[in-house]
Amino acid sequence: xxxxxxxxxxxxxxxxxxxxxxxxxxxxxxxxxxxxxxxxxxxxxxxxxxxxxxxxxxxxxxxxxxxxxxxxxxxxxxxxxxxxxxxxxxxxxxxxxxxxxxxxxxxxxxxxxxxxxxxxxxxxxxxxxxxxxxxxxxxxxxxxxxxxxxxxxxxxxxxxxxxxxxxxxxxxxxxxxxxxxxxxxxxxxxxxxxxxxxxxxxxxxxxxxxxxxxxxxxxxxxxxxxxxxxxxxxxxxxxxxxxxxxxxxxxxxxxxxxxxxxxxxxxxxxxxxxxxxxxxxxxxxxxxxxxxxxxxxxxxxxxxxxxxxxxxxxxxxxxxxxxxxxxxxxxxxxxxxxxxxxxxxxxxxxxxxxxxxxxxxxxxxxxxxxxxxxxxxxxxxxxxxxxxxxxxxxxxxxxxxxxxxxxxxxxxxxxxxxxxxxxxxxxxxxxxxxxxxxxxxxxxxxxxxxxxxxxxxxxxxxxxxxxxxxxxxxxxxxxxxxxxxxxxxxxxxxxxxxxxxxxxxxxxxxxxxxxxxxxxxxxxxxxx
Length: 528
Ligand SMILES: NC(=O)c1ccc[n+]([C@@H]2O[C@H](COP(=O)([O-])OP(=O)(O)OC[C@H]3O[C@@H](n4cnc5c(N)ncnc54)[C@H](OP(=O)(O)O)[C@@H]3O)[C@@H](O)[C@H]2O)c1
Known about the structure:
Blueprint: H1 3-10, H2 15-20, E1 30-34, H3 39-54, E2 63-68, H4 74-88, H5 95-103, E3 105-109, H6 119-132, E4 138-142, H7 149-158, E5 170-174, H8 182-195, E6 201-203, H9 211-221, E7 235-243, H10 252-277, H11 286-299, H12 308-311, E8 312-315, E9 317-318, E10 320-322, E11 325-327, E12 345-350, E13 362-367, E14 374-381, E15 409-415, E16 419-427, E17 435-443, H13 444-447, H14 455-465, H15 474-493, E18 504-505, H16 512-520
The chain binds NADP nicotinamide-adenine-dinucleotide phosphate.
C-alpha cells in the first residue's frame, strides 16, 4: 500500500461515487432555506451550493430562496451570500460563475410564529417556476432551531407545499439535533410524517458526506483481502475517537442542553459504528445499505440505565493549555452555568451481539479540549498466537513471548490528514532478529491530486438527485437514540459528584478514569 501503487489506483474510477452521483445532473429545482440568515447557511450551505455551481453540477434554472425572520431585500441577501462564499467557500469566487448563481437567489421574510407568513414564499416559488423553469420541484432545508422543525413541517403540509402533483418532487432536509432522546425523536418523526412521507425526508448527518467515511464503505466492500479478517476471530477490539481541540466557544447555551453524548455519539459516532460493523450490502441501493446499518444498530447490546456508570465515563474539562495558550474551563465559557455538570467528554464500551462481533468490543470516546482535533477508527487485530522468534538471536532458544510482538493495527483517519495506515512488524536491518513495527501509509492528499468536495456539497447534490443513501433513515435515528437514551437515563439518576467536576484538564486526553476504564479490560487508548 505504497503511494506509488496507489498512484495507479488513483487512475481507476471510484465505483461508489461514479455510481451514485458523478456525471448526473439533477432536475431543475428550487431550494428553500429556512434559517437563511443563520450561521449554517452562511458558513456551509450557500458556499457548498456555490462550489457545486463552480463544478458545473447544478441544473439550469437552479434557484435558492432564502427565508429568515430578518427583513432584507433580495439584493442584500445576494450581497451577504457573496461575502459568505468569499470567506468560507472551498473554491475561490469567480465573477462569471457568481453572476449566474446569484441570478437564482431570492429572499423572503418568514416568521414561523406568524400565521400567514408563507404568502410571499408561495408567490416567489410560482415566479421561479414561470421564469426559471423549476417545474414545481422543491427542497425545503430546515436550518432553523430544532424547536421549530415540527411546526414548520406542519405548516408546509397545511399550505400544500409538501405534496407534489404529477412528476415533480418535494423533499425536506432536516438538520441535527434530531430530537433529544428516543421519545422526542419518535415524536418528531411522527410529526414530520404528517406532512412528508419517509422517502421525502432527508435527515442530514454531515459525517456521512465526508469522503473518508464513504471511502470506509469502499475500503470494506471493494477490497477482498480485509473482509475475511473483519470479525471477532481476527479483531481484538475497535476504537473510535472523535477528538476536538475547541471548547464550547460561542455555543455554550446549546452545549448545556446537549452535551457530548447527544452532540457527537448519538449521530456521528453511531453512524461510524454502523458502517464499520455492518454486513456487506448486496448492492448500493439506499434501502439496502440502510437496512444493513439498522441491523447492526439493532445488534448493539443496550446498556441498562443501572449499568450506565460501569459502562461509560463522563468528563468535563477544567482550564488548561492548548498549543501554548491558556484556555478557560467549560464552566467559565459564555452561557455556561458556573456549577454545570454537563459532560464534555464521554468514553464507553459497546458490545455487539452477533456472530461477527461477539466478544470484540467497540470503544468509543469523544471530548472537547483534547490536545488536537482528530477523528479516527482504529482496528486492533489480535496478537500472533505464538512467537517463533528469540531475543536478539535467530536461535529457538529463549523465545520471545508472543505478547512482545505488537499486534497489527489498521487506522482509518477520517479527519484531518485523511488516510489509512496499516501497522505491521518488520525485521530491523542487521545480524540479529530484532522486530519493530512499521507503517504502510495511504494519504489521500498525495494519492489523489483532486481536492475532496465538502461533505455538504455531496449531500446537497444527493438530495437533489433523490438519493438518500447517505442520509439517516427514521429507524436508524431511533435505534441510535434507543441506545443513548438508556445511558442518559442512567446518568440522570446518578449525577456526577460535584467534587469530581471538572475532572480533566483542557489540553489532556480526558479524565484518568477513562484510562482506568480501559485498563480494567487490559487495554489502553491509542495516543493520537
Ligand atoms: N451552525 C452549525 O455549524 C450547525 C451544525 C450542525 C447543525 N446545525 C443546526 O442547523 C440549524 C441552524 O443552525 P444555525 O447555527 O444556523 O442557527 P442560527 O445561526 O441561530 O440561525 C437560526 C436561523 O433560524 C431563523 N429562525 C429562528 N427562529 C425562527 C422563526 N420562528 N421563524 C423563522 N425563522 C426563524 C433565524 O432567523 P433570524 O436570524 O432572521 O431571526 C436564523 O436564520 C439548527 O437546527 C442547528 O442545530 C447547525
